[in-house]
Amino acid sequence: MPRPSITALSPSARQQRGSIAIFAALGLSLAVILLSIADMGFLYFYKREYQKAADLAAMAGARSLHLSCNTARTTGSTNALQNLGNKRHNAPVIECGHWDGRRDQAFDPTAATEDLNAVRATISGVPPRFLPFIQSHTLTASAIAIANQPLAQLRIRSTLATVNPGQGTVLNAVVGGLLGGSLNLSAGAWDGLVHTDLNLLNYLDALAINLGLSAGDYDSVLNTQVSVGTLLGVAATALQQGGGSGGTANVNAALLGLQNLVGANLPGLQPLVRLGDLLNVQTGTPESGLDVGLNLFQLVQGSVQLANKNCVACANLPINLPGVAGANVRVRVIESPQLSAIGNPERARLAPLGADRIYVRTAQVRTLISVDLPASLGTTLNGLLNNSLVSALTNTVNDLLSLNLAQVLSCLLACDDTREIIDIQVLPTPRLDINIDAGGGRAYVNDYSCANEPDKSLSVPTTTAAAEIRIGKMGTTASDAATKVFSSSSAPSVEPVPILDIGTKTAHIKCTLLLLCTTTYQTATGTWTSNIALAKRNAFAGGGIGLKADLPVASTSTTQVYTQPPAGGLPKIGEAPAYKSVTSTNIVSSLRNTLLGLQLQFYRPTSSGLGNGLGNVVFLVGSVINGLVSAVMTVVNGLLGPLLDPLVNLLLEQLGVDLNKVEVGANLSCSGGGASLVD
């Protein structure tokens, strides 16, 4: 049988066979790659569908959380099944819990029923695979939605409603003084600031960009240290970008005012402050709660006061008092204001003054006024010592007041004697220091009701500002008084201002039989001089009268209840607030009236010398005859009251402190069954 012949392949045939194998391998690899891409796309599709279902389920559950947790779970699960359709998935997991806004511990599924405010939806499943040899994996998606909580906002404001040219001048002096320099803003610019609101959300976003912070990280924006100049400069930027309201003319005037203020580059614009010290935003407040107005005048006022606490040189105010030879006014902010507060009233009412409080306050301001008293006061007081009310002692008083040292220090015979002699001074240091610690008006949320929306209410305990008024001598000079008064926030020490000082000096008289006498006086160093003006003086050694006051001015407290209806009685967040005021009935409106509480202090003699007679007379007058006291007080009140009233009233008004009234604005938005995704 013949054997089959074997035909050798040509080189070209062998090459073709090898090429086919290579292309087959490449094709197979390409197919695997394409299938893998398709598989990855399929996984991405399922992941996206799971996430979308989780988001919608969490939102649906949160919207019904106000009914009950069981209702929220049922609603969320039903929503998830509807959105997943016939896609492979495990049973949806819907949980109720508490979300506190902190990413490291955002959701607590073990929270008590009364603390439930959020729903977490978890969707998982094992999607089908195109490549059966690739191991299947479980995909999981979750979402947290917070039920739209009730939001309340409080604002506290100065009663300054408009700015006229005269007030503009005072504002320049007060604000410029607080900033350590001078300002020259027009009254129109100040008035524009009073009537312009800046959108808080826009402002915070602009500030975040300026500080290089992440957009939307409002907690960081509020708590970052930033200069006052930057705070006000960014406000001008946000205003330019259309973030203000109040009418074109007011907005333009406010913008010019901000630019001029920042451009002044005063020392008080440099200290670092935290915006969160002025605007309190409760942790976890949604972005919608920040879409509110912020009054620009209050922002300027509060920022300047906040910086003043850290600005040692920022206290002098160039304010003159008509009819007063000299007055030095210094102001220091002891406690900065809290202009606005936003948060959940449900959390606030659990601890109204705790960490979640919705609380506002006016500034606590310390003012020192050093006044050079008119010379006429001393003349008038001299006359009062010969008042008919003390007729029984008139001759004694006159004799002692008219003592002639030459007569006192005489000898009938030769003598060599050292003795104390009277040195009477009426109003020896004609300077009066007045310290006023004023402010601390406050308001906070302690209860609310959203049970039957649109009927709603907000309960706000409100207290007017209190004050401590101290009048007397607080230092040897105006500068020394300022150093002592502003050295700490504790109450300064007050000494009486001497009105009648019966002092003594030590004299030495030496006479011969020929009545040739020489008189010398002891100095502070113990040496002797013939010049009585250089002699050491022992103040009040023979007694005297001093003037001082330490008067608490009480505050008034009441609970304001804002309600809706009536229409507009309690607006929603973002709308113009409803303002209510608390007016005091027992607080003095005039320093002139307060001066009626001044006290005369009577000094007993401290020396056994010649001052005793008049000293005991003066003490007796103070103890027995009230008419003299009344006469002295009438003179002091009549002179000081009309001079100090305008200054104090204007000063406190520009600083946002009113001893008679506090105005608080309120807003409340109830949940309305809404929800927002938070994670």
Molecular structure report:
With 679 residues, the protein is α+β, with helices and mostly antiparallel strands. Among the domains are: 21-147, no CATH class; 326-559 and 579-654, no CATH class. It contains 17 helices and 32 strands. Strands 12, 13, 16, 17, 18, 22, 23, 24, 25, 26, 27 and 30 form a twelve-stranded antiparallel beta sheet that branches. The termini are far apart. Residues 387-408 have low confidence and may be disordered.
Q: Secondary-structure map with pairings?
A:
Elements: H1 11-63, H2 69-84, E1 93-99, E2 107-108, E3 118-125, E4 139-147, E5 151-157, H3 165-178, H4 187-194, E6 197-199, H5 200-211, H6 218-223, E7 225-227, H7 228-240, E8 244-245, H8 248-263, E9 272-274, E10 279-281, E11 293-295, H9 296-308, E12 316-317, E13 326-335, E14 340-343, H10 345-350, E15 359-361, E16 364-372, H11 375-384, H12 394-401, H13 405-408, E17 415-426, E18 431-439, E19 442-444, E20 447-452, E21 455-463, E22 466-472, H14 478-485, E23 497-511, E24 517-522, E25 528-529, E26 537-538, E27 544-553, E28 557-564, E29 578-583, H15 591-594, E30 599-603, H16 612-624, H17 626-654, E31 661-669, E32 675-677
Parallel strand pairs: 10-14
Antiparallel strand pairs: 1-2, 1-3, 3-4, 4-32, 5-14, 5-31, 6-8, 6-11, 7-9, 12-13, 13-16, 15-19, 16-18, 17-23, 18-22, 19-21, 20-21, 21-28, 22-27, 23-24, 23-26, 23-27, 24-25, 27-30, 29-31
Helix pairs in contact: 1-2, 3-4, 4-8, 4-9, 5-7, 7-8, 7-9, 11-17
